TrEMBL record:
Belongs to the complex I NDUFB10 subunit family. The keyword Membrane applies. The gene is Ndufb10. This is NADH dehydrogenase [ubiquinone] 1 beta subcomplex subunit 10. Keywords: Electron transport, Membrane, Mitochondrion, Mitochondrion inner membrane, Respiratory chain, Transport. InterPro entries: NADH_UbQ_OxRdtase_su10, NDUFB10. It is found in: Mitochondrion inner membrane. The keyword Nucleus does not apply.
């Protein structure tokens, strides 16, 4: 806008005159109800809420960024150490969920690339296809054929049998 205003073109509306407050000798009951409401209900609730917010600000908890410490693998647990077994099982389940999400994210990236590129998908999305093939092969090597009820022990046994087969094949060659 220009610095100098044309006051004739843009007239300022007249200001309203303030309404004079009527004063009576009878007090307004609404004021009493408002004051009673503020002291009885609003103030205690506000104080409690402020106290809770102050307490929460001291102890920040981000549930969506929860970090677990790495625990020993099932192969490192001592015999009869059931707490270690439980922690290793929980760690394995978290790792499996993370690996499932990695596969799903790579799959979504490939689908987005195919959608974006159209008929040139084989040429322009080769890198994503190769990455998906690597990720799914690694997931199948580790968790394949375990089923829904697979656990850390069966996964460890599967890896052990696979390593034994690879050693046997290397010795035969």
């Amino acid at each position: 806008m220009p610095e100098d205003h044309d006051w004739e073109a843009y007239k300022v509306p007249p200001t309203r005159t303030p309404v004079s407050e009527r004063t009576t000798s009878v007090p307004n009951p609404v004021n009493y109800f408002q004051t009673a409401f503020n002291y009885v209900l609003d103030t205690p609730v506000t104080l409690v809420r402020e106290w809770i917010e102050k307490w929460q600000n001291k102890n920040k908890f981000y549930y969506y960024h929860q970090k677990f410490r790495r625990v020993p693998d099932l192969s490192e647990c001592l015999e009869g150490d059931y707490l270690c077994y439980y922690e290793a099982e929980a760690q394995w389940r978290r790792d499996r969920m993370v690996d499932q999400e990695i596969v799903e994210i790579v799959r979504e990236r490939l689908a987005a690339c195919k959608q974006r590129e159209g008929p040139n998908e084989f040429q322009n999305c080769a890198k994503e296809m190769e990455l998906l093939a690597q990720v799914t092969k690694a997931y199948q090597d580790r968790y394949g054929e375990l089923g829904y009820h697979g656990n850390a022990r069966t996964c460890l046994m599967k890896q052990k049998h696979r390593m034994m087969e690879e050693r046997k094949a290397a010795q035969e060659n």
